[in-house]
């Protein structure tokens, strides 16, 4: 895995900086809605740092702006990070070891997804976890992040447009399917494509122009806790090594969006440059002196590969 991230992907995406993308309701070009659902495995034994959620299945439904379904995609991803399935994950997903062993590598799955999306698109998913999981897996494998930088939370949009009482709890996908009278789809819940199909049917009941006005869609998760963790991390970093820096302009970024463990002694940080978009950096944890065994020192920044 270290080699994969160090060398980057076997392919590159056309680079379009997120800084130049316009809000959906201001666009004049045709836009595809990519309703996506991910299933992922988790580390069985948790450490002190949050671990990667490894994607094992991708389901996606492509829709046009008239809410017509254009295409579907289902990819089983061969695990390469964790050897075993987390017991909780094993109970709810519909994938056995043989099916997973015959899946494709994540780098190939990401390329299939990118090709499936088309030129102009945004992602939508039920809840905000899928957006973070997708970005984390792209960062782990050293792939370009900006293509996944517009990702709308349909659960939030549903609450904004359909709930009448303020402070209403987040609704489960199955609850909304029943509330809207949506017909049963092929397959079972917690199958990536089936969940994406249900979410696509819910999307037909939502006003995306209003949603684009009410939500930026940009990948900016609620990162206050992440910022706090990174601030503590910086207090132990060597001078001049405390912030991730953009490869293109060399400027340090204080917009820290996510961080998760990479190996036992290192972590991956996802950050944002206002001029060049999203990038990831690897930081290693090293002992500086015996009195401070938890001291951390950041390694050089690793910008995700993009086509010139």
Descriptive tags:
5-stranded mixed β-sheet, globular, 4-stranded antiparallel β-sheet, about 30% helix, Nucleotidyltransferase, domain 5, disordered N terminus, 9 strands, alpha+beta, single chain, about 300 residues
In words, what does this structure look like?
- With 308 residues, the chain is an alpha+beta fold.
- It folds into 2 domains: 2-214, 2-Layer Sandwich (Nucleotidyltransferase, domain 5); 224-302.
- It contains 10 helices and 9 strands.
- The chain has a 5-stranded mixed β-sheet with strand order 3-2-1-4-5.
Question: What's the SSE blueprint?
Answer:
Layout lengths: L1 H6 L24 E10 L12 E10 L5 E8 L10 H6 L4 H5 L4 H12 L3 E5 L3 H12 L10 E3 H9 L10 H7 L12 H12 L4 H7 L9 H12 L20 E8 L2 E8 L3 E8 L12 E6 L6
Parallel strand pairs: 1-4, 4-5
Antiparallel strand pairs: 1-2, 2-3, 6-7, 7-8, 8-9
Helix pairs in contact: 7-8
The CATH topology of the largest domain turns out to be: Nucleotidyltransferase, domain 5
Rg computed from alpha carbons, rounded to a whole number of angstroms = 20 Å
What would you say the CATH architecture of the largest domain is? Answer: 2-Layer Sandwich
Main sheet: strand order:
3-2-1-4-5
> Given this structure, which CATH class of the largest domain is correct?
Alpha Beta
- What is the average of the pLDDT values? 81
What name goes with the CATH superfamily of the largest domain? Answer: Ribonuclease H-like superfamily/Ribonuclease H
User: How many strands?
Assistant: 9
String of helices and strands: HEEEHHHEHEHHHHHEEEE
Helix content: 25-40%
So what's the overall shape?
globular
The biggest sheet, with number of strands, parallel, antiparallel or mixed sense and barrel status, is:
5 strands, mixed
What is the count of structural domains?
A: 2
Put simply, the count of helices is 10
Strand proportion, as a percent range, falls in 15-25%
Query: Which regions are unreliable across 5 or more consecutive residues at pLDDT < 50?
Result: 1-21, 287-302
Structural class: alpha+beta
